[in-house]
Specification:
Layout (H helix, E strand, L loop, with lengths): L42 H8 L27 E3 L25 E3 L5 E3 L3 E6 L3 H4 L2 H11 L2 E4 L3 H4 L4 E3 L2 E4 L2 H12 L6 E6 L1 H6 L1 H9 L3 E5 L10 E4 L2 H9 L3 E3 L5 H8 L6 E4 L7 H13 L4 E6 L4 H13 L4 E5 L10 H6 L4 H17 L6 E5 L5 H10 L4 E5 L2 H18 L5 H4 L5 H4 L3 H8 L1 H5 L3 H23 L13 E3 L2 H7 L9 H8 L2
Parallel strand pairs: 4-5, 4-16, 5-8, 8-9, 9-13, 13-14, 14-15, 15-16
Antiparallel strand pairs: 1-17, 2-3, 6-7, 10-12, 11-12
Helix pairs in contact: 3-5, 3-20, 11-13, 14-20, 15-20
Length: 529
């Protein structure tokens, strides 16, 4: 029996641990015996000398992080239901109803003009180093796969080479590069590059800039995310950059323009500044105005991204998305996936994914039953593999069209990039070397991609992109197999009937029947002969 859902006072995320690892007080996370003379390995101890720095996962810039809290109900509390009878979306013929015949293509938007080859999207990777350092793989891999990729908040504001005039951005280097990498590798109009904006981005005119200057068609209004209920933040280790960000209107702590702070930094008394974004203040009037401004600026599609806020805020998101004809509403459950968020906040705030997505379904259905517009919906919050993608789509069917993933795609791109480095250095690890020592031998999708793109284009592909593309190929086949087993050969046929709850609590929260109650009426008819 689990006595607590949370782990407190020690975590790999904060580089802390308990001295008495096998004997810890559940409520406080402290060692049962806290000894005078301990050097302070736990989070309390480390906070005694590093203070606010220990709020955040470490080491910053080379990691992504998500909560380690165990929620009372998660997607593992549901099982996928298969059947031995019939087929939906294809002729019920064993020679035709095979899993490669499953269609994963999804179309959405007010004119159904957005088309993805696969039902997932990366819902927002912004100004952290982990995003910037892996963007080649993420952008090119997403474009080749024909899926969506969202450029998150603060990218233009963080760019030292960006040019501003009268407080508005007029040119960029990093943002332009991010957009162009996707656009240059997009194939047959599949997929989309989306540019998100928080309050600072909006003040700086970032979305108007990308629409007018970079040809971006999709923009996203951001309310929040599942990782935290405050604005985005990063660490900055350069005084001049911290001062630049302060000048551009960001909240930078400590104040990099104060003489005593400058002196302390130069003396090495601290080594990093924090750059924070402000929290937005949502109102229907301002939301309607912003959506109209973006459309007048030339945006073809307007999205909304919200996080694990309280149910009333989710209801507002559904209402505003319906009333102002938003093209995609993304709802991100608590736990998050981030390059930097306060660690305890990430673990202890917000509505968990299954709870949030179940409420989302309930609210969307209420609108649909009244005959009101329900936009395409994406759900996010810890999804990594095909079974979870199936469950997320089915739990929210018919409204949920996409699943959002960030940490998993970043991991795939990072691994691909790392393997590429080992190939170049002729130091391929034994674990990988059993498959070969070249990218054609190691990446299982290489042969098909080389044939599709041609030798010259293939040789230019970064291995980070191969890593993401190959990971997506696995998800693609895995999801097709699960759907074929449920006899659903197109995404439009997925339904809540394809799931069963494994616990009464999961059934109560989601409205998905308990597994012993599934098909009860049909079972009685069958048994009655």
């Amino acid at each position: 029996m689990i006595s607590t859902y949370s782990r407190i006072n020690s975590s790999a995320a904060t580089l802390t641990k308990n001295r008495t690892e096998d004997s810890v007080v559940p409520a406080s996370g402290m060692c049962v015996t806290c000894v005078d003379g301990c050097i302070g390995m736990c989070e309390i101890g480390k906070s005694a000398y590093r203070g606010h720095e220990v709020i955040y996962p470490q080491p910053f810039g080379v990691i992504t992080t998500a909560a380690e809290k165990s929620y009372p109900v998660d997607y593992s509390h549901f099982n996928i239901m298969g059947t031995a009878v019939g087929a939906h979306g294809i002729e019920a013929d064993s020679d035709k109803a095979i899993f490669p015949a499953v269609s994963l293509e999804v179309r959405f938007g007010h004119d159904q003009g957005l088309k993805f080859r696969q039902p997932w999207i990366i819902p927002g990777i912004g100004s952290t180093n982990i995003a910037k350092n892996n963007w080649e793989g993420l952008a090119i891999g997403s474009a080749l796969a024909g899926t969506g990729l969202t450029i998150g908040e603060n990218v233009a504001g963080m760019d030292p080479e960006a040019v501003f005039k009268d407080g508005r951005v007029v040119d960029t280097v990093d943002l332009k590069r991010r957009v162009k990498l996707f656009q240059d590798h997009q194939r047959d109009g599949y997929g989309a590059i989306i540019v998100q904006a928080n309050i600072e981005d909006t003040r700086l005119g970032v979305q108007e800039y990308v629409i007018e200057k970079l040809g971006v068609e999709c923009v996203e209004i951001k309310w929040g995310q599942g990782a935290k209920n405050i604005g985005g933040e990063v660490k900055v280790r350069d005084l001049a950059k911290a001062q630049m960000l302060h000048k551009r209107g960001y909240l930078v702590l400590p104040d990099p323009t104060a003489p005593e702070i400058i002196e302390a930094f130069n003396r090495g008394m601290f080594k990093e500044f924090e750059r924070h974004s402000r929290v937005g203040m949502v109102s229907e009037e301002s939301f309607a105005q912003r959506a109209e401004e973006l459309r007048k600026a030339g945006a073809k599609y307007v999205f909304l991204k919200t996080g694990a806020f309280r149910p009333a805020d989710l209801a507002r998101a559904v209402l505003f998305a319906s009333r102002y004809k938003i093209d995609l509403l993304t709802v991100d459950g608590a736990g998050g996936g981030t390059g930097m968020s306060p660690w305890r906040m990430m673990n202890e705030w917000g509505v968990p994914p299954v709870h949030l997505h179940s409420l989302l379904y309930r609210y969307a259905k209420q609108f649909a039953d009244r005959g009101e517009h329900v936009p395409a919906i994406a759900v996010a919050g810890g999804f990594t593999f095909e079974d979870q993608i199936f469950k997320g789509l089915a739990l929210g069917a018919p409204f949920v069209k996409l699943v959002g993933m960030a940490r998993a795609p970043i991991a795939a791109a990072m691994v691909g990039k790392t393997i590429g480095k080992t190939i170049d250095e002729q130091q391929v690890p034994v674990y990988v070397e059993r498959f070969g020592v070249t990218k054609d031998e190691i990446f299982v999708t290489a042969g098909a991609l080389r044939k599709e793109l041609g030798d010259a284009a293939f040789e230019q592909l970064p291995t980070g992109a191969l890593g993401l593309y190959t990971y997506y190929e696995r998800l693609d086949q895995g999801l097709r197999q699960l759907m074929a087993g449920s006899r659903k050969f197109s995404l439009e046929y997925l339904s809540r009937d394809d799931l069963a709850s494994l616990t009464r609590e999961a059934a109560e929260i989601s409205g998905i029947p308990y597994i012993m109650d599934v098909d009860s009426a049909e079972v009685e008819r069958i048994l009655a002969g």
